[in-house]
What we know:
The chain contains 8 helices and 23 strands. By secondary structure, the protein is of the alpha+beta class. It folds into 2 domains: 48-210 and 399-438, no CATH class; 214-384, Jelly Rolls (Sandwich), CATH 2.60.120.260. Strands 1-4-8-5-6-7 form a 6-stranded antiparallel beta sheet. A hairpin with an 8-residue loop joins strand 6 and strand 7.
Amino acid sequence: MYRPASTLLALLCASCVCASCVAPTGDASDLASHEHALAHPGPWVIPPDTLAVGDTQYVSYTGAGPWVGESGCGGNLLAGTAQVRDWLRLAFPQIRSIGGYSCRPINGDSSTMSVHATGRALDIMLPLDAGDADNDLGDPIGNYLIEHAQEMGIQFIIWDRWTWSASRTAGAKGRSYGGAHPHHDHLHVELSTEAAAMRTPWFSGPRPLPDQRCGTLAVAGGVVDDTDDCFTAYGPATYWRTEPVGHGGSMRWTNAYRGTNPSNWARWRLDLEEGGEYAVEVYAQPPFAVHTATRYVLAHGDVEHQILVDLTGAEGWVRLGTFSFAPGAGQHLSVYDNSPADVASNQHIPADAVRLVRVDRGAPTDPTEPTDPTDPTDPTDPGPRVIDVRELPLRPLAPIFGGDPAIDDDPMEPRGPGGTLTGTCAASPGARALPAPLFALLALALVARRR
């Protein structure tokens, strides 16, 4: 949830303390359609439509049995669990990391084995917002898993002080969760034994990605703009600005800042008709492309590359390099606003258009992008602005974000088909307030830290 930060900045702007607070400009409806929604207060609230679908889902619950020591552990994620993990990484880019296997008993119950020890459970890690759960990032994941529980084989979910069990009776599948850990930074998701063995219908189907309405890029390549369905901007709307310039007459931009994790970032999803070698380019529009070490991460084929680019003086198409792509979806380019070093003020980062140009078959650019004879880009030259390119670990290892995939805070896992829980602490649906002194300190810190 980004409500606390935006509220602080609004107050500061009202008192003329923050001269750099600039309201986003441009078409607000367009911004909303391609930007992750703002958060809502309180715990996981499952929408009525999702509850209705969830009531039609049934998955028999299978626990892990008694704890007998390490000899009873599975040794790793089971095949079905690993495939669900990899698919979730593609389907929900807001995920920081996904882990799951942990050989140990349930936290708080030394006599019962954790489902994590069997290889049938996942911890889906998400960024926090001011110490609270970000429901806008986590709720869509939980809701999707509920609506496809029977097809996939999802038997149990814990997220943000709430649980949902596919084995409970209709109308009572969700309950408050009062465990020692509120599960505000990750979803605990359990698969059935059938799902872990890849015997549920989901494993033999097409496995479409949710809300992926992207068009397919032609063999010659093509353009994905910030107004397309294949583009999504994440992070506080306060720090995304839109301008009526750039490729196609619109663009977004934000500012870089020093931080461990990204705050504002964007992703262009790439679905290719045919695999091959493609040059990757981003569109830069002065004066909104300034940052001297803009960080892009390209997921293509089975690898990821981090690309650092100096956008000083950049205008038009900037070549990031040439890379091998596989056919189909699941590939993407992302840009991030965080930097490990100090950042000067007004280091703008654009999020406009991405262009792929086929280079291994001598194919022309996409017909929707006519060739410009004055364009200085050379498909064989990554350009002098690229200052570093390095390969990252594979996606399931979460190379972009941190997080502890070994967390398993499920002291109140279901004990049988009924999913009985022993906790009594109900989650408050109200917003969480900050003490006044802390509120003021956080406000000052935000001004110094951000734009």
